[in-house]
Write a structure and sequence with these properties.
Blueprint lengths: L1 E5 L3 H13 L3 E5 L10 H6 L7 E4 L5 E4 L1 H12 L7 H31 L5 H21 L13 H10 L2 H4 L7 H10 L3 H6 L13 H13 L4
Parallel strand pairs: 1-2
Antiparallel strand pairs: 1-3, 3-4
Bound molecules: glutathione.
The site of glutathione (GSH) has 11 residues, from helix 1.
């Protein structure tokens, strides 16, 4: 059994969607980010970085894993699925996973900070992160040319990692216009039952781009855990 400490954010969803896709037995525990529970001592013992998500594998002597890329690789290897084992397939998957970890996640994350959460609106900073996110979307567009999935001709943790962030493009204020491959790929992943279940962990959140009050509240809460 695995304990997942998480919150309803793209990084949290990367872990819960992976667990659902792999059919692993797990219990989700909601971490209250506005209350900064992720900075409490008990949490820092599991993840010194003080950020969600983190997993604890009870079948492996309470082994804790933090950083979503490492969590996804750990889970895929435990279940023996979603990460090809041949050298090239594994490398392709890792390339697109690292691309998400080092590019899509940080850039969209900062676009959200400055577009949605920061009290001052700094146009050049907002432009910088939104334009860089758009550039990275165009990289995915090229990566999907003539291909159904990002890596190894199969659905892998690389698709899950990138999907959980790219799907929030509206919240980041980044357009997906003129990117037919990326749009097709988003549409192919969304109806998967495991994705649907994973996106409802630890709680289902409203579509923030369609609900102004919910968006305001979410931004206020996000501000509380923002390190400036
Ligand atoms: N690189 C980390 C990023 C994790 C992360 O940034 N988590 C955010 C939520 S999406 C968080 O815990 N924010 C609260 C905080 O920064 O205190 C990973 O991939 O696991």
């Amino acid at each position: 059994m695995i304990d997942l400490y998480t919150a309803p954010t793209p990084n949290g969803h990367k872990a819960s969607v992976t667990l659902e896709e792999l059919g692993l037995d797990y219990t989700a525990h909601a971490v209250n980010l506005p209350k900064n529970e992720q900075k409490e001592e008990w949490f820092l013992k599991l993840n010194p970085n003080g950020r969600i998500p983190v997993i604890v594998d009870r079948e492996e002597g309470d082994f804790a894993v933090f950083e979503t890329g490492a969590i996804m690789v750990y889970l895929a290897e435990k279940a023996g699925r979603l990460l090809p084992t041949d050298a090239k397939g594994r490398s392709e998957t890792m390339q697109w996973l690292m691309f998400q970890m080092g590019g899509i996640g940080p850039m969209m994350g900062q676009a959200n900070v400055f577009h949605r959460y920061f009290p001052e609106k700094l146009p050049s900073v907002i432009d910088r992160y939104q334009n860089e996110s758009r550039r990275l979307f165009e990289v995915i567009e090229r990566g999907l040319e003539g291909k159904e999935w990002l890596a190894a001709d199969q659905y892998t943790i690389a698709d899950i990692a990138n999907y959980c962030w790219v799907k929030t493009y509206k919240w980041s204020g980044v357009s997906i216009e003129g990117l037919p491959n990326l749009q097709r790929w988003l549409k192919a992943i969304r109806p998967r039952p495991a994705v649907d279940r994973g996106l409802a962990v630890p709680v289902k959140v409203k579509n923030l781009t369609k609900d102004e009050d919910a968006a305001k509240k979410f931004a206020e809460n996000a501000r509380k855990s923002l390190q400036t």
